[in-house]
Amino acid sequence: MRKTLMLAAAGASLIGLSACNKQASVGGNESTQTASSADAINGTWKADISSVQWETKPDEYLLRDGTFSCKSCTPPYSVAADGAFHPVNTPYFDSDSVKIVDARTITETSKKGDRVIAVYRTTVSADGNTQTTQFTDTSTPGEPSKGEFSETRVGPAPAGAHAISGQWKPSKLANFNDAALTFTVDVNGDTYKSSSPDGTSYEAKIGGGDVPINGDIAGTLVSVARSGDNGYVVTRKRDGKVVGVVNFTVGADGRLKGVSENKQNGSIMRWSADKQS
Fold first, then answer.
1. What is the pLDDT of residue 37?
2. Where are the beta strands (DSSP E) in the chain?
3. Least crowded by CB within 10 Å, which of 25, 68, 122, 192?
4. So what's the pLDDT on residue 194?
5. pLDDT < 50 regions, the chain
6. How many other C-beta atoms lie within 10 A of the C-beta of residue 112?
7. 5 three-state secondary structure
């Protein structure tokens, strides 16, 4: 899950980009938004990590003969697992360091320029069937996002490979802080504002064009459209291509229901959030 999770997860951040949507039909004139729909969405929301469900191909890693490869990352990359930083070509980090701690544990540190943007520590269980990663994401200008996620083995490690090798599917999220889960929405007329404690934010005209996400180090753009009475579609682009779409609707129970799709790898993440204020 790794970087995919990071870009998909918190409000605009777990839930927004990296992940992880079937795009609902978008209709109506955004300028005719009712006060009730704005009242329903406006406020601060916190994603419920126990509600997250995935539809995704397995993650695939290989650590063998001194080289670490993330075969399922978008784009895939490989670096020497010697603890030094080596160049990679990805939107969010341009160098990566992988260090073998022991036969079941590795650490990975990613940089953009001279700035550390993420640190991961991954440990495989004694039976080899579960791996748990603790992460700190400092890629945004605000509070760092922290948490951990577990994956279940669905493909064996090749002969002679480190225990983290093989195919894995996400199974559990835990210990996420508010920066990774909390976001605020403020809709006023045809203007949609979103912000997160991680320091990312944007302001877009509903039904209008793309605008930059403040604090996004990859230069991602976003646009917002209405979907039904209490729903919105947030589309993210990078280098002129759609990389993620998030559909969310406030239900009769007052919960926000979201579906996030990573358009680069086809993964889908379904989630819910509760209003905090």
1. 59
2. 43-55, 59-64, 67-70, 77-80, 85-87, 95-102, 105-112, 115-124, 130-137, 145-155, 166-174, 182-188, 191-195, 201-205, 211-212, 221-227, 231-238, 241-250, 256-262, 268-275
3. 25
4. 96
5. 1-36
6. 17
7. helix
